[in-house]
Write a structure and sequence with these properties.
This protein is α/β, with parallel strands linked by helices and 262 residues long. It is built from nine helices and eight strands. Helix 4 links the parallel strand 2 and strand 3.
Length: 262
Amino acid sequence: MIQPFGFSEAALRRYSRQMILREVGGAGQARLAAARVAVVGAGGLGSPAALYLAAAGVGVLGVIDADRVELSNLQRQILHGTKSLDVLKVASAQARLEDLNPDVKVVAHAVRLEAANAREVLAGYDVVVEGSDSLATKLAVNDACVLLGRPLVAAGIAGWEGQLLVVEPGRSACYRCVYRREPPEGSVPTCAGAGILGPVAGVLGALQALEALRLCLGLGAAAGGRLLLFDGAAAELRSVEVRRAPACPACGVSSSKEPTES
């Protein structure tokens, strides 16, 4: 039997715990089913983010990653398992997400985003979740989202710490307002160099999913205009106000309308 908003009995049971929320309901669940979200990076951040987005019933979920699953990934990249070693991450992610929720259409993009292709790949999505481990990729994705007018939920992690920034083009600071240019090679710690505790990735990835779902529901970003800073060692979450930089090469008043090279 089909219920109001076109949901089957099975769908109503699947999503019942979130549909009873005043902010969701049937209309909100229908919005989620119509939403298209891209997750850049099927790693430590993308794993929890994609799992929660799929579980919530996002209609189309794009997963973008060019890497294959390695043994060192499995300590934090919970989309993948031992049987997926040496498999493309997007293929492993697609199998897991479709098993979790067959209602969701998972689109696998086995590519590495850069200035030359980010705009084309991301154009078909409403919201972008960025969880790569490359600042060059983050800047390329940021620039594409600003040009396309797509909200971006970006995060980064290392050691016990993580950061999250929501970019709402034309309204809030973009990623380049905070990180203007790619720093010299080796100057920014990575998970491989600084280490990472798995649950830190889980906390930031879950926050990314939360903000992406808010945007899909039309609620706006709770963290808009703020850079969230998580310290897992101290169990602290704080925020710093960030403002658009007038001279930002991506979103500033004098910026061009073409992608900016990092």
